[in-house]
Write a structure and sequence with these properties.
The protein is α/β, with parallel strands linked by helices. The protein has helices at about 15-20, 25-30, 35-40, 120-130, 150-155, 190-200, 240-245, 265-275, 290-300, and strands at about 50-55, 60-65, 70-75, 85-90, 95-100, 110-115, 140, 165-170, 170-175, 180-185, 205-210, 225-230, 250, 285, 305-315, 320-330, 335-340, 345-350.
């Protein structure tokens, strides 16, 4: 009895979709334009996507609920095209690729493409993925001034709201005896590149800055990101904070408190929130180095507080540490909690 191919693409959309959800949809979408259109019609969601554009490595991980895909890029003038036998056409470009199924993992795939310009290849691949799938939970890691261009930012911006996180640089973790030491990588992103990100990145994209800009770096425009996390904030100023449109603002508490975050400025910020001058903020988390007397006498000077809770607990070094928590209410009736625990200042609008 002669076997014949199953007419998968001729099926109605509902049974076609049920079958595709049982397999890894990415390899099918790569087969042809017709397959791409068929998979696109299903509006399939990814579980998460991780895209790295760094100085030494460009990779893309595309994960679905039951299947994982890893895509990397290789370039060596001595490599033979025959070692990359598969040909995928993405955005009018031919990707010469070695496609392998991961051992002991049904349906998981590894793709290695022969391409000299890794940045361009990642841009093409990201655009293709967003055109076929509903990409959820996109984590972007961007490093190296040469990788931060208007084209890259435009591609990152071309996503549905609230789905993307972007990290600039990364934290280096080293061991100092039994303790872990976290250090931001020194400027791997130039000042102009950082300004490009701050001025053009879509405001709904969560931004994490894990680099130390140059000592002379300043940014004088309002910060537009709704969520901003920084490894260190010494380049940031109190003026940046009060004029930003951040809803969630955090600074890594493993590092020293930035010099501008003084008791006077913290008190001034709380008073501004009280009169409605900080309408965007929902949460602030930042390291502080204040004692009991300073907290009680200066932080809430001129501010009515209620639901006060005071305790003393041992910190990580077995030293008694003063803990303080209270609530404050704004003129418009909004309520916020303020706490100082383990040298962490937390402001949370309730």
């Amino acid at each position: 009895m002669n076997s014949s191919p199953f007419p998968l693409l001729r099926l109605p959309l509902v049974p076609f979709g049920k079958i595709i959800r049982l397999i890894n949809p990415l390899p099918l979408a790569l087969c042809s334009t017709r397959c791409q259109n068929a998979v696109r019609a299903l509006n399939l969601e990814t579980k998460d996507v991780f895209i790295r554009r760094s100085v030494n490595e460009c990779t893309v991980d595309i994960n679905f609920e039951c299947f994982n895909n890893s895509w990397s890029f290789s370039w060596n003038e001595e490599e033979d095209d025959e070692e990359f036998p598969d040909r995928y056409v993405l955005g009018g470009h031919v990707f010469k690729t070695l496609t392998e199924s991961e051992e002991y993992a049904d349906g998981n795939m590894d793709f290695v493409t022969l391409w000299e310009d890794h940045l361009l290849a990642v841009n093409i691949l990201e655009t293709f993925l967003k055109s076929i799938f509903h990409c959820e939970n996109i984590s972007q890691e961007l490093d190296g001034t040469e990788n931060i261009t208007e084209d890259v930012i435009n591609i990152i911006n071309s996503t549905h709201l609230g789905s993307t996180k972007l990290e600039l640089g990364w934290l280096k973790v080293e061991r100092n005896g039994v303790h872990r030491v976290f250090e931001p990588i020194q400027p791997s992103v130039g000042d102009d590149a950082l300004k490009l990100v701050l001025s053009t990145l879509q405001e709904d994209i969560d931004l994490k800055i894990s680099i130390c800009p140059g000592e002379e770096f300043q940014y004088n425009e309002p910060i537009r990101q709704k969520t901003l996390h920084m490894a260190t904030a010494n380049w940031f100023t109190f003026k940046n904070l009060i004029y930003s449109k951040c809803e969630n603002f955090t600074v890594n508490t493993r590092f020293r408190s930035p010099s501008w975050f003084t008791l006077k400025n913290a008190n001034r910020y709380l008073k501004r929130w009280y009169i409605g001058a900080q309408p965007y903020i929902r949460k602030i988390l930042i390291k502080c180095e204040w004692n009991k007397r300073q907290i009680n006498q200066k932080l809430f000077d001129g501010i009515d507080v209620f639901d006060i809770v005071e305790t003393t607990e041992q910190d990580d070094n077995d030293v008694d540490a003063y803990q303080f928590e209270c609530k404050i209410q704004a003129e418009n009736g909004s309520t916020a909690s303020v706490s100082i625990k383990q040298q962490e200042f937390t402001f949370q609008v309730l």
